[in-house]
Amino acid sequence: MPTPSYTIICKQNSLITHNVHEVRFEKPEGFLFESGQFALLDVPLLDNPDDIQTRAYSIASTPDEDDLLFVIKIKPDGRAGQWVKEKLKEGDDVRIQGPLGNFTFECDSDRDCLFVCTGVGAAPFRSQILSALKAGNKCEMDLIIGVFAEEDIFWADLHDEITSAHPNMHVHITLSDPKPTWKGFKGRVQEVIPTIANFKERNIYLCGNPAMTTNVKKMCLEEWGIAKEQVHMEGYI
């Protein structure tokens, strides 16, 4: 069965860090998805709009929100990042295919959860965590986010809001190149995971750089003895 496609309208394109854009689209009628799934966006080449390629992005919005939200990182010579930075504006039409993927969250589970990501790998976790909290999930949920430096942090206000409102939700940010004034975690996400209470008994969700997700999954299974069915992974390039 072919993947459904839709034409969607850009409602907002905002720079939220020096190299990450938050992009909102009108959600088309009939677009039904589960938290953690992704979609394919048609991305034109700047110098040749007829040259179209698809790029996969996790849906950061929850299924009950009115918009479709994506976070897109600008990379040197990256097709999608340059399109978002230089071309995409409010009112533009974009073709989308989806939803796709099986990286979904079992929010009715009694097991505590640990979400681990780097950079814009936080996108599906926004959808999963907000959906679970709205559904009244009371399990302990910890989110570890790894970024390079303080200027790479985004959604800090959202994290403050949800952790203040939900005592079972905790956010931990670790920097690989922190300034001396940084008071939080330092280093890779792999170094933060063992600091989380009962992490070996939790359901673990990994999203981000494929080198990180592959390495952490290997550590979970081989070093920490975590059962395979507890580890869920979504890598991106």
The helix-and-strand class reads alpha/beta
Beta-strand proportion: 35-45%
The biggest beta sheet reads:
6 strands, antiparallel
Q: Do you know the CATH architecture of the largest domain?
A: 3-Layer(aba) Sandwich
Number of domains: 2
Helix fraction, binned, reads 10-25%
List the total number of helices: 5
Order of strands in the sheet with most strands: 4-3-6-1-2-5
User: Superfamily at the CATH H level of the largest domain?
Assistant: Nucleotide-binding domain of ferredoxin-NADP reductase (FNR) module
**Mean residue pLDDT:** 95
Low-confidence stretches: none
Run of helices and strands: EEEEEHEEHEHEEHEHE
Task: Write the CATH fold name of the largest domain.
Answer: Rossmann fold
The coarse overall form would be: globular
Radius of gyration using CA atoms only:
18 Å
| Gap from first CA to last CA | 26 Å
Topology:
Elements (H helix, E strand, L loop, with lengths): L4 E13 L2 E7 L11 E8 L2 E11 L8 E7 L5 H8 L6 E8 L12 E6 L4 H12 L6 E7 L8 H10 L3 E7 L9 E2 L2 H4 L10 E6 L1 H14 L7 E5 L2
Parallel strand pairs: 7-8, 7-11, 8-9, 9-10, 11-12
Antiparallel strand pairs: 1-2, 1-6, 2-5, 3-4, 3-6
Write a concise keyword list for the protein shown above.
237 residues; alpha/beta; Elongation Factor Tu (Ef-tu), domain 3; Rossmann fold; 6-stranded antiparallel β-sheet; 6-stranded parallel β-sheet; 5 helices; 20% helix
